[in-house]
Predict the structure.
Amino acid sequence: MNTTSVIHDIKPIILTTGLYDLLKDHLRTHKLSKYNEEKLTLELRAAQQVLMRDLPPNVVTVNKKVRIKLLSTGEEQVYNFVGTTNAKRKNNTTSILTPVGIATIGHSEGAELDWEMPDGITTIRIEEVSDL
């Protein structure tokens, strides 16, 4: 698959160095679809790495509550993103390494992005990011 044919506009994402390294390691496991792997690779190449204290408050990262909208259906979903070891269904928390976590991490409120889900490529808009 030609990356330029599926990825039309990569905007730099903002990540802490720890999350940047975590995503690089996740790429090495080859658990993503070809489309998502190519998209994440391009996002990481353009990523801005910052210290946690310099991360803008409206950027998706761990310990954030994120409300997204699936633009194809208008459905809204809310996720409480945490690190992989802290994700527990009973606490209503989701690992940042779930497909939707990887898709949105580093993006800020208002961002629209395409990500391949099990039923095809979906356009997601990040509606709100707040602290847990």
Observations:
- Residues 5 and 54 are 34 Å apart (CA to CA).
- The two ends are 38 Å apart (CA to CA).
- Helices lie at 3-6, 17-28, 34-46, 99-104.
- The longest helix spans residues 34-46.
